[in-house]
């Protein structure tokens, strides 16, 4: 038998390796009342935590999105036998091959002179070609192929001119020393282990485990980009690469946990888990170091979400983080969050009401991301761009103003961000108010599950899971042509649905998500008729949905479908009334059939004047100038009653697809509030 060196699972460089926390995780598992029999390592990375669980006798599911990682798991934990003598002979032959005389190959042409010298790149490519030929020719089995690829990955990693990942290479630093390939130290296990390569949020909906370990990405660094070279040589598709780092197209591997959608993704994951114990690793990088190192989940987010499932313990494990040397973090605290899941009704019942609410806009709204809740409904004329200017001009909640009444609520943007706990949302569109009721009374995870079921049923795109390239599309051109037929079928089915159909609101929301600009429009027969749009149920929409559901659950909302005249009959003088009616001077989908007339405008102004005379407080959004036209009636009315006209500065850059001259409007907020600026 040829003698070759061996290596352990942990003998590689990898960001976020969990070697330092293994003893503590072992103690936590040992302290569980009922020993677990099955476990999942959902973001397995190096696989060392899964290895710990496997050595403890558990049947482990190793999951990761990177093909290099899942290949390593199959090599170390696969149940099939391997022929050690044959593998040693093959690796010894590679180690003896004269690299200087090897022919150029895909790997050397792609990566020679970058992460590796040309000679070492030729040797790496040669080894991979040999593995492919041996497997295709039947000389080695599937697991033996995986063992040899693991040998290649571990050997080439030690020779790479990197700082532990392949987001960039150190120019001129590639070692001349020849990489030496070994064989993994294989163990025998009493239990059978499983390897999956799947989105964790989808995987957990298909299985039960006694224990689940979670170690999601901490920051904006996408692991699919960091280890693209290893995936390239593993998959061996020999495809085109781009940019200085020589990356393949990795868009389909983008993780929500590295984006602003991390909180809703994490909430969805925890909600869907079928397990008794959840152990999560995370650290407190927070906002320290550079922006890419800033944590995407805060401790408060993690605790709030995990406590919906049961009792949570927090264990701190100080250690020094491996970095590229410029993050400015230094020593950090790795935290283990241990959730002992309680599936009793007492725990499950309040979960829908316990979603972490996004922070209120406050009385000094800034409109910055994370401050304002952005609705997933892009109602034409909605105030998501102006809400940070409107809110400071209105009084805050208190004894004089106890409830915020949004008379033309549309996307609900202003009401959700008004800073009031009691909010009445009114709109004459029954389906729009129905969505408000859906958001207020349904857990985020259930809405997502229903939408995803419709996506699968109708064959709509899922770019978040599969990437644009799966559909032969790109971000610029969008997915309109891909989804058009399926969308039109869903639209036809929705228009034929009975109002009592339980899936109707989910179908309506799905139409809005996949529709043009996420807008809402009906024809004269009352049928939804918005055309298909360019986007789908992507991470941005999911985050906006999550924030909206969280805010609606945090409020005490009332949802009405009344004519505005009837709303004024329900008002108290302690209500703060906000009106954002259709604009006479504008044309939007909701007003294309003369749905708002001069008589309606006059009636609304009369109602507001009477409400003010009773001692009530209001704010009215409108335009005084638009495309050269003046709203003289509105200006005269405000002057006659001595109301204050505030000019709002924000230009509607994308609020209506029909407007070309986008700076020709004077947007205003008219108020009768004379108190101090409370915002």
TrEMBL record:
<dbReference type="GO" id="GO:1904047">
    <property type="term" value="F:S-adenosyl-L-methionine binding"/>
</dbReference>
<keyword id="KW-0489">Methyltransferase</keyword>
<keyword id="KW-0808">Transferase</keyword>
<dbReference type="GO" id="GO:0043565">
    <property type="term" value="F:sequence-specific DNA binding"/>
</dbReference>
<protein>
    <recommendedName>
        <fullName>Site-specific DNA-methyltransferase (adenine-specific)</fullName>
        <ecNumber>2.1.1.72</ecNumber>
    </recommendedName>
</protein>
<dbReference type="InterPro" id="IPR029063">
    <property type="entry name" value="SAM-dependent_MTases_sf"/>
</dbReference>
<dbReference type="InterPro" id="IPR012327">
    <property type="entry name" value="MeTrfase_D12"/>
</dbReference>
<dbReference type="GO" id="GO:0009307">
    <property type="term" value="P:DNA restriction-modification system"/>
</dbReference>
<comment type="similarity">
    <text>Belongs to the N(4)/N(6)-methyltransferase family.</text>
</comment>
<dbReference type="InterPro" id="IPR002052">
    <property type="entry name" value="DNA_methylase_N6_adenine_CS"/>
</dbReference>
<dbReference type="InterPro" id="IPR023095">
    <property type="entry name" value="Ade_MeTrfase_dom_2"/>
</dbReference>
<dbReference type="GO" id="GO:0032259">
    <property type="term" value="P:methylation"/>
</dbReference>
<dbReference type="GO" id="GO:0009007">
    <property type="term" value="F:site-specific DNA-methyltransferase (adenine-specific) activity"/>
</dbReference>
<dbReference type="GO" id="GO:0006298">
    <property type="term" value="P:mismatch repair"/>
</dbReference>
<dbReference type="Pfam" id="PF02086">
    <property type="entry name" value="MethyltransfD12"/>
</dbReference>
<keyword id="KW-0949">S-adenosyl-L-methionine</keyword>
